[in-house]
Amino acid sequence: MELEIILQVSSSYGWAAAQYIDGKPDPALVDLFGTHILPLPYTSEAAAEFVLKNVTEQNKDAKIVFAGDTYNGERPFKAN
């Protein structure tokens, strides 16, 4: 099982994370929250390095990356 967390920042909403297992939205998060994208407790003022360090510490076995335009051919986040 490969856990991947994709981080993205929005000037309006702060940091959020999209969580995937084996390339698909995490079904446990979808069951609990209705989505695999959750807000993080960081404002948009938080430096990317700070967010990455803290998320990595809490998810040692996950591959953590910053969002690009697409993930597996789809946008993991809505456009800002």
Give a description of the structure.
The protein is α+β, with helices and mostly antiparallel strands. It has helices at residues 27-33, 48-58, and strands at residues 3-10, 14-21, 24-25, 37-39, 63-66. Strands 1, 2, 3, 4 and 5 form a five-stranded mixed β-sheet that branches. Mean pLDDT is 84; it is low at 69-73.
Unreliable residue stretches: 69-73
Q: What is the mean pLDDT?
A: 84
Number of helices: 2
Assign a percent range to the helix content. 10-25%
**Most strands sheet:** 5 strands, mixed
Broad shape: globular
Total number of strands: 5
Strand pairing plus helix content: what structural class?
alpha+beta
Gyration radius over CA:
12 Å
Number of individual domains: 1
> In what range is the share of β-strand residues?
25-35%
- Element pattern in H and E: EEEHEHE
Task: Please provide a brief summary of the model.
It is built from two helices and five strands, in the order E-E-E-H-E-H-E.
Note the main attributes of this structure.
80 residues; alpha+beta
Helix and strand arrangement:
Elements: E1 3-10, E2 14-21, E3 24-25, H1 27-33, E4 37-39, H2 48-58, E5 63-66
Parallel strand pairs: 1-5
Antiparallel strand pairs: 1-2, 2-3, 2-4
